[in-house]
Design a protein that fits this description.
Length: 253
């Protein structure tokens, strides 16, 4: 271990000691960005970047357990990603399938797929549903795996589900328009019943949401980290938590 590693170890422990449990976010959303750029910068194949990024997930969830985070939403595949070249997409889906299956096998976390599963290959959708069923009774962090996810698609699906529900009741569009409230749409989101994210982290230096949890993040705090996801360290996570704890949250202003 070099001097730099020792220094980071000391800094990491200092950050950990400074955390106040009451100031730890309950729900953390993460945009896992930078796998491809990390691979190119490292002289690796794109698929190697995706594998390194996938390998980071279990370690990250362990950090969340240590500090008391209750819900984590991981954006693994967007609806836009579904338009990637067929060979790359097929490999990425295999990596995601293996990752989610492995997370479920630990029986440490409760897996909940969020996204338009109907856009995914049947085998991928089946494995995601199996992971959810296998961990339904697990008393651990709720891990939302956002796969085939897009914020606009989620809101569209929520409104569509709301319309279908009221159509079955015989409610007219005019009557529904008179009574529909924010909570009626929220009840049909992929994350229904869960608290909104307190903190959203995006790696790789990009400073935009790109459609991630558009509805749920209205009052979230955002933290943009320069590190690519495969190189994301515990000290980076702790810095995000410290930044969150130092902020005065002003809802609606």
């Amino acid at each position: 271990m070099g001097l730099r590693d020792l220094a980071y170890g000391v800094y990491e422990r200092r950050l950990e000691r400074s955390l106040v449990p009451a100031a730890v976010p309950h729900h953390v959303g993460v945009i896992l960005d930078g796998n491809r750029r990390w691979a190119r910068a490292s002289g690796e194949q794109v698929s190697d970047g995706h594998r390194r990024g996938a390998a980071k997930i279990e370690e990250f969830l362990g950090w969340c357990e240590e500090v008391g985070v209750g819900v984590v939403t991981l954006w693994l595949l967007s609806t836009d990603n579904l338009a990637r070249p067929a060979e790359e997409l097929a490999e990425l889906l295999r990596i995601i399938e293996g990752t989610v299956t492995a997370l479920a096998a630990t029986r440490r976390w409760r897996i909940h797929p969020v996204g338009a599963l109907d856009l995914l290959p049947a085998e991928t959708a089946r494995l995601l549903k199996e992971a959810e069923a296998a961990t339904a009774a697990v008393d651990g962090i709720v891990v939302n795996v956002a796969i085939g996810y897009g914020g606009r698609r989620e809101i569209t699906d929520a409104v569509r589900a709301l319309l279908h529900e009221h159509a079955l009741r015989g409610t007219s569009i005019e009557s529904l328009a008179e009574v529909v409230q924010i909570e009626h749409i929220a009840e049909h989101l992929y994350t229904k019943g869960q608290p909104d994210p307190d903190l959203v982290i995006r790696t790789s230096g990009e400073q935009r949401l790109s459609g991630f949890l558009l509805w749920q993040s209205a009052h979230s705090e955002f933290y943009f980290c320069e590190a690519m996801w495969p190189a994301f360290r515990k000290v980076d996570f702790l810095r995000a938590l410290r930044s969150y704890a130092d902020r005065e949250r002003r809802y609606g202003s």
